[in-house]
Amino acid sequence: MEMEEETKSTASAETAEATVSRKARSAQTARALMQRAKRASRRRFPTEDKIRIVLEGIRGELTVAELCRREGMHPTIYYKWLKDFMEAGKARMRGDSRRDATGDEVQELRQENERLKQLVAELSLANMTLKKSLY
């Protein structure tokens, strides 16, 4: 009798755990689906537009709220861009700016790297051959 009750309680506990587990998985799946949809529908502004919008806000011809409403964005995005813009300006004025390499420069550096690797391989082979010939 006790064995049957134990089996029933264990089975019901396992069923409850499975139900909770399915619900949790379902919630996670729904959350992930919503995040993907938000990312896919999120508006992306090119750098030139960001600069134009920030400069318009700095000029003060429109309020930030009006500017953001016109551009279809939230004011917190504007203030984030403004902060980034000012930080970049400060860094540039301090002279510690670093620019990204262009695609051509990267390609040239990769070719030079490959050429130097080839040279090291050839010299290593020549060095090994000389060592073997001495012994």
Short note summarizing the structure:
The protein is mainly alpha-helical. It folds into two domains: 31-99; 100-135. The protein is built from five helices and no strands.
Pairing-aware structural class of the strands and helices?
Answer: mainly alpha
The low-pLDDT segments are none
Span between N and C termini? 87 Å
Question: Biggest sheet: strands, sense, closure?
Answer: none
Return the string of H and E elements.
Answer: HHHHH
Name the helicity range. Answer: over 70%
> How many strand units?
0
Rough shape?
flat
What's the alpha carbon Rg, rounded to whole Å?
31 Å
Q: Would you mind describing this structure in some detail?
A:
With 135 residues, the chain is mainly α. The protein is 84% helix and 0% strand. It folds into 2 domains: 31-99; 100-135. Helix 2 crosses helix 4. The chain is flat. The model has no long low-confidence stretch (mean pLDDT 84).
Properties at a glance:
84% helix; 135 residues; mainly alpha; single chain
Please write out the topology.
Blueprint: H1 2-41, H2 47-59, H3 64-71, H4 75-94, H5 103-134
